[in-house]
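user: At home tonight, take the chain set out below, taking as long as you need, and be ready to discuss the fold:
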Amino acid sequence: GGLALDVSFALEEVPRLVACPPAGYTETALGVHATPGRIQAERIGEVAPGQQVLAAAAPRSGRWLRISWPLQGWVQAETRDGRA
């Protein structure tokens, strides 16, 4: 006798975004941080202009969006004047 397995699955659409900051924001918008905020000590890397990123399931924190790939962290998703 073998063991019976109860297997289930779910398909979930995940938003795939492209890093395209407005002119003049390349330096600030492409940094990936451990927490939502531009604290240099918590910068864990950066994404390149035009690079695809996967948004995490977590809600946004103000202007900050959590990503799960290619790095796990937070990116600035819009400028102070609301440009995305």
